[in-house]
Hints:
The chain is mainly alpha-helical. It has 12 helices and 8 strands. The N terminus is likely disordered.
Amino acid sequence: MKVKKILKWVGLSLLLIIIVLGVWQRELVAYGWLQLKGQLNVVNNAIPLEEFMELPTTTEEQKKKVEIVLEAKQFAFEELGINYSENYSKIFDQQGKPSMYVVTACDPYYFRPRMWKFPVVGSVPYKGFFELDKAREEANRIKTEEAIEVDIRTAGGWSTLGWFQDPVLSNMLNRSEGDLASLIIHELTHGTLFVKDSVTFNENLASFIGDKGAVMFLEKKYGKGSVQVTDYQQSLKDEVTFKNYMLGAAQHLDSVYKAMVGLSIDEKEQLKSDALLRIRNNYDTLTFGSEVYQGYFKERTPKNTFFMSMLRYNSQQEELERQLQDDFGGDLLAYLTYLKKRFPSL
Length: 346
């Protein structure tokens, strides 16, 4: 009887703790429940890649892309030091629609992102939603209550950091071979090394390993100097030109913002508008090998959230390259092995 009373007391105590946490963090609990439902929908409706390959609706091009996913995974495990996992062994049919919507926000006259705090991963400058309506609700709430710039973008992929078996998203198969390999390696890197409260480092590293790894993957598959390698390297060159310009533009805007101390909102807005106009006009002086990045500003005016995203994913690329070459002689496997030992991951 005494044991039963103790167990009953423990059970009631745990229930009380859950109730208190639910009331105290009801917004976080509600969000977590929505995300769990969305993630389970993806996981439960994903089918094995082998099954997808056998479907009569699967095209030959899609089958080739699935083979690339499998090859890129194996290459990442064997050649790059990526931790083995069963991720990307299944595929989820997006039916041509985005699967994840990401809300970001930033001060309108200062590069200070709005942060969201979550258990385990810590503070992050974005919040994902599986439902567009929910993402819009969050964006409108923040814009109204906090008077900051808000944006919603779609996510081409994401990592659950080992909590679930991440599937291939069907829209991934629309990418080129190099881009697809880079994306897979990028997301697998997150599952291998993810430092709490260090989003900029995590995203920069994943992008760095993804792009470098994709080149190595194509070189091993087709040979150095092959058309496949040189075409992908040219696309990376264009990407670097684009990103470097945007990083420089972000630095210019940052200097403009720092000089706004004591000015009125109208004066700040005028200075910001003038700076963005210069950024748009100077962009036309860039030369690209393809049409992907040409005319980027013709139909859009970037917000601070855009520049913060550029900084988040690309601001540390030169330093990572320096470390790779100077400290590890260009050996990507040795570099990632070192990083895994140095930084505690989730």
